[in-house]
Amino acid sequence: MKLFKTLFATALILLSGAAFSANIQVQAVSQHVHILSGKDYGTNIGLFDTPDGLVLIDPMPGEPYLAELEKTIQTIYRKPVTHIINTHAHADHTGGNAFFASRGAQLVTGAINRFDITHRVVKSHTGTDNIYYYKPGNIIFVGDVFDTSWHPTFYAGGVAGFNLAIETILSLGDEQSLVVPGHGEAANKTSLRAFRQNPLDWVNMVRTLSKQGLSVEQIMADKRAVELVARFNPQGKSPFLPSKAYERFVQRTLQVIEHELL
Question: Which PANTHER family does the protein's record reference (predicted)?
Answer without folding.
Answer: BETA LACTAMASE (PTHR42951:SF20), METALLO-BETA-LACTAMASE DOMAIN-CONTAINING (PTHR42951)
